[in-house]
């Protein structure tokens, strides 16, 4: 025990050290709960420690679990056993066999929210035979206009970058990973270093003299080259989740990869809701698997799984079965919501009602079920609302900075959310990140906020991003713009929407640039017209003009309208149009 460690934990740690066998790691039950899913542990007998009235459970750490995703971790903590989907699973595994023979496949897995797309993918991964390289692009409604964010996030994970890595250390990891796959480093490294916002490597690599559009095209090509190189070593499983939230640039990359799939050992598995319009038409190597609602026998089986084999009262069982409409997430959340009411008691091998059935409110919608569970969590609901305001996946460091009611309370309530399986934890605090079990959980938590509280949260998040996370602010100004916008701080939001548009334009991400700049212009309309207003409108339009020209051409009516407005504003404030492209639009 180090001399600078103090508090009641010190004598406990010392006694655990005495009880540990040679070359073994022994932890308390409290620590075992925190690391559950990340490490395999073996229960030891009860031990009574000095100065402790009650004996405590000890566990011996056996090995790292190998969990790689939120569902992997949740499964070890008691994820409801998988039910049904035999035909769909067979179709997915059949396509994998073809990939192993060198015939790439694309599988489209569609279904409504809560139907079990992510769960089916997670179970499929565990049933795949042979070794493979896993690439996962995770789309989110919060990142729809962040160009290539799912790809950047994926590369960060497979390169195993850490927050405290220096740029030089990150570059070394990049080079090592590419060298192992025999990927040519000369042009690929500087392209992807720039893509990942690293400074240009030393003089060993050439400085590429490219226009933004050329840089974009070559970067997309480099990423495709990397994936193909990986597939030449062993099959690649590329999973893109929630395709209905994909940003335009990532969709462009995905189209290039889909085109390359049949000639490589690549299994591209895409999940999305039915409203998404698939852009690739009918191809021989493309299979569409649609998930329908579970039939009644499988719903009944799932209810029994959630109650761990202990039957509910028959009338209650029938109501749950009929009201959940065969949506797996609804079945699970509805049963958990009922069990948490305290109106049922375990009697032997089954549950009994403590009050007549009419007094027990069964949620009639998935939203109602999730809301009921959040309401019963007390302070933990406030933490869930704050996490939902920040985003789908939240680093503990940011959450800790925003939370204003003490770190001990924050950690306790986060643990309650994890125990309730509404939020999943990845890693250990303070490096941990938190991710909602499902987008619907996040949506429910966020929508339950009062407007005043929601605006306060967004304002505080924006303030802390500026003060404590300058790198995030510089690389993702659209995040700051979003939080200022939702806080109602329009004047602060507009410059960041312009910065986001400029950054996207520099990377030739024209669709994203158009979206950011349009948001800035729309917000500007809510402000009183002043000279400063006119200057901001002019700056936004000057940035928008080359975007429109690139997307629609010089002769498009929209280009002429913007150019005319730029000329009009320039006359009003005494400034001349700043670019030839503007004059060309007139």
From TrEMBL:
Note whether Nucleotide-binding occurs among the keywords. yes
**In the record, what terms sit under GO molecular function?**
adenylate cyclase activity; ATP binding
Residues annotated as domain Orc1-like AAA ATPase:
81-263
Q: Please give the Gene3D superfamilies that the UniProt record associates with this protein.
A: Nucleotide cyclase, P-loop containing nucleotide triphosphate hydrolases
Read off the InterPro entries from this record.
AAA_16 (IPR041664), Nucleotide_cyclase (IPR029787), P-loop_NTPase (IPR027417)
Q: Which GO terms describe its cellular component?
A: cytoplasm
- Report keywords, A-Z: ATP-binding, Nucleotide-binding
Coiled coil stretches, renumbered: none
Q: Which Pfam families match?
A: AAA_16
Report if keyword Nucleotide-binding is assigned: yes
Query: Where are the bilayer-spanning segments?
Result: none
Superkingdom as given in the UniProt entry: Bacteria
Name listed for the protein in its UniProt record = Orc1-like AAA ATPase domain-containing protein
Query: What is the native source organism of this protein?
Result: Candidatus Entotheonella gemina
């Amino acid at each position: 025990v180090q001399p600078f460690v103090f508090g009641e934990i010190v004598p406990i740690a010392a006694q655990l050290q005495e009880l540990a066998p040679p070359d073994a790691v022994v932890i308390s039950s409290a620590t075992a709960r925190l690391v559950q899913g990340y490490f395999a542990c073996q229960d030891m007998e009860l031990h009574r420690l000095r100065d402790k009235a009650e004996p405590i459970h000890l566990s011996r750490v056996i090995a790292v679990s190998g969990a790689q995703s939120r569902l992997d971790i949740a499964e070890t903590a008691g994820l409801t056993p998988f039910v049904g989907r035999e035909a769909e699973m067979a179709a997915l595994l059949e396509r994998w066999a073809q990939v192993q023979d060198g015939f790439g496949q694309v599988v489209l897995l569609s279904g409504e929210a809560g139907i079990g797309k992510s769960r089916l993918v997670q179970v499929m991964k565990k049933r795949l035979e042979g070794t493979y390289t896993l690439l996962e692009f995770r789309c989110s409604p919060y990142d729809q206009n962040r160009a290539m964010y799912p790809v950047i996030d994926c590369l960060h994970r497979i390169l195993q970058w850490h927050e405290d890595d220096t740029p030089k250390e990150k570059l070394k990891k990049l080079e090592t990973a590419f060298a192992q796959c025999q990927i040519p480093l000369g042009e690929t490294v500087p392209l992807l270093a720039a893509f990942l916002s690293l400074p240009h490597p030393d003089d060993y690599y050439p400085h590429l003299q490219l226009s933004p559009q050329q840089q974009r095209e070559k970067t997309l090509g480099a990423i495709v080259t990397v994936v193909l190189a990986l597939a030449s070593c062993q099959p690649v499983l590329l999973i893109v989740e929630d395709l209905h939230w994909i940003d335009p640039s990532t969709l462009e990359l995905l189209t290039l990869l889909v085109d390359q799939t049949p000639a490589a050992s690549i299994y591209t598995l895409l999940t999305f809701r039915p409203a998404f319009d698939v852009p690739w038409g009918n191809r021989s190597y493309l299979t569409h698997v649609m998930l329908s609602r579970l039939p009644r026998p499988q719903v009944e089986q799932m209810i029994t799984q959630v109650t761990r084999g202990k039957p509910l009262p028959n009338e209650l069982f029938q109501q749950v079965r009929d009201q959940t409409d065969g949506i797996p997430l609804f079945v699970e959340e509805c049963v958990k919501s009922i069990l948490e009411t305290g109106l049922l008691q375990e009697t032997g091998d089954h549950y009994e009602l403590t009050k007549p059935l009419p007094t027990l409110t069964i949620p009639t919608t998935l939203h109602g079920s999730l809301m009921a569970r959040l309401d019963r969590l007390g302070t933990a609901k406030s933490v869930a609302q704050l996490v939902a305001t920040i985003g789908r996946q939240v680093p503990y460091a940011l959450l800790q900075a925003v939370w204003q009611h003490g770190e001990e309370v924050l950690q306790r309530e986060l643990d309650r959310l994890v125990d309730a399986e509404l939020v999943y934890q990845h890693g250990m605090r303070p490096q941990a990140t938190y991710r909602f079990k499902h987008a619907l959980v996040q949506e429910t938590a966020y929508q339950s906020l009062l407007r005043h509280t929601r605006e306060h949260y967004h304002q505080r998040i924006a303030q802390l991003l500026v003060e404590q996370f300058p790198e995030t602010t510089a690389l993702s100004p659209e995040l700051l713009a979003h939080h200022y916008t939702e806080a109602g701080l329009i004047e602060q939001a507009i410059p960041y929407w312009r910065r986001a548009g400029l950054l996207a334009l520099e990377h030739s991400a024209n669709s994203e640039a158009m979206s950011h700049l349009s948001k800035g212009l729309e917000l500007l309309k809510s402000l009183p017209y002043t000279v400063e207003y006119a200057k901001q409108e002019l700056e936004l339009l000057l940035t928008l003009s080359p975007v429109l020209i690139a997307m629609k051409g010089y002769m498009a009516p929209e280009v002429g309208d913007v150019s005319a407005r730029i000329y009009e504003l320039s006359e009003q404030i005494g400034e001349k149009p700043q670019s030839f492209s503007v004059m060309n639009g007139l």
